[in-house]
Amino acid sequence: MKPKIWMSSPHMSGNEQSFVNEAFDTNWVAPLGPNVNGFETDLQSYLNEDRHVAALASGTSALHLSLILLDVSYGDEVICQSKTFSASANPIVYQGATPIFVDSEKETWNMCPVQLEIAIKDRIAKGKKPKAIISVHLYGMPYKVDEIHKVAKSFDIPIIEDSAESLGSHYKGQNCGTFGDLSILSFNGNKIITTSGGGALVTRTKSHKDKAVFLATQARDNAPHYQHSHIGYNYRMSNIVAGIGRGQMTILDSHVANRRANHELYKSHFEAVKGVEFLKEPDGHFSNRWLSCIMLDSMKTREELRFAFEKENIESRPLWKPMHQQPIFKDAPSYLNGVSDELFERGLCLPSGSNLTKDELDRVISVINMYFAVC
Ligand SMILES: *Cc1c(COP(=O)(O)O)cnc(C)c1O
C-alpha cells in the first residue's frame, strides 16, 4: 500500500518546540502564562490592532461564549449558515435556543443574503426576531461581507463571524476574523494553523474579551476564597498549546501561499477538463484556499472519483453536508434555495495541506488524469 495522503494535516514550522520547552522550563504548565498572552498578541497584530483576542480551548467554545456574550438563551432563535460544519450550529442548542438554517449562494458557497432577508422577515412575522446570525467563510472563501452585514444591520441583529477555516483570508483588504460583532478562529489539527486543538474569540471591545476570559476560567468573582455569581466554563487555552500557536504564527502566511499554490496547480491541470469546476474568487475576495474543492458533473462521477482516490490511499471527502439535511437538525426551520444540496451532491474536497510534496501532488493529479481518460 502506498503511504497515505491526507486532506489537511498538521504542518509545524520547527519553532513550536522552543516555546513549548520554555513553558516546561519555567513551569507554566497551566491554562495561563506567557505563551497564552504572547499568542493572543501575535493574533491581534496579525488581524488588527484594534481587536482583542481571547485564546480558548476550541473554536466551538469560542462560538458558545459568543452566544452567551450576546445573551442568547432558552427559547431564542439564532440564524446559522446551513452549509457548514456542525460545530457552527451545536452551541446554539447548548444555550437552549433554536437554530434557523439559511442556504448558500453560488459565488462563494456561503450564506445567501437574499435567503437571509427572507428568513429574518419570516421569523419576525412568526413572532420572534432572531437574536444573532452565524455566518461562515467556508473553506477559506470570504462570504459576501457587504451584502450579509447590510441585511443584518437593517434589522439590527449582531453577527458572529465563524472564521474557523479562514485565518489568512481577506475581503476588500480587511482580514477575515475581524468582521463580526464577535468572531471566532479554530486551531484544530486540520486547520490552516494548528495548536493540536484550540480556538480564539476576537472581540471589538476589551470588556467583551474580559468577560469571555472570566467565563472561560470558571467565572470566579474577585475574592480570596472561591466565590461565584455566574455559571462558568473551563474553556481557556493551555500555555503549552499556546506555545505551539506562537510557533505556527511564524509561518501562517507561507501556509496560505502553499495552499493557494495547490489550488492553482489543480486548476491548471483540470480547468480544461469538461465537468470539473472550481470556485473562483469574486472581486475583492482573497481565500486562503484552506481546502481545494472541485464540483463534478454528477454525484456518480464524484463518488467514482472518491473511490479511485481511496484505492490509491488518498483521502478526499464530499463537501459539508448541509445542517438542514442532518438527522439531528431535521425539525429546525430552514430557508432553502437548493444551492447547498447541490454542492453536497457533486462537490469533492481534494488533498490541500501546506506540507504536500511534489510527489504527493503528482499522485493526486494522476488519479484524476486516469479517471477522466478512461471515461
Ligand atoms: C473547525 C470548525 C469549527 C470548530 O472549531 P474547533 O476548534 O474544532 O472546535 C467551527 N466552525 C467551522 C466552520 C469549522 O470548520
In CATH, what is the homologous superfamily of the largest domain?
Answer: Type I PLP-dependent aspartate aminotransferase-like (Major domain)
Discrete helix count: 12
| Sequence of strands across the biggest β-sheet | 1-9-8-5-4-2-3-14
Strand content: 5-15%
User: Residue share in helices?
Assistant: 25-40%
Helix-strand pattern, N to C? Answer: HHEHEHEHEHEEEEEHHHEEEHEEHEH
How would you describe the overall organization of this protein?
The strands form 3 sheets. The protein has an 8-stranded mixed beta sheet, sandwiched between helices. Strands 10-12-15-13 form a 4-stranded antiparallel beta sheet. By secondary structure, the protein is of the alpha/beta class. It folds into 2 domains: 16-249, Aspartate Aminotransferase, domain 2 (3-Layer(aba) Sandwich), CATH 3.40.640.10; 253-374, Aspartate Aminotransferase, domain 1 (Alpha-Beta Complex), CATH 3.90.1150.10. Helix content is 38%, strand content 14%. The mean pLDDT is 97. Pyridoxal-5'-phosphate binds next to helix 3.
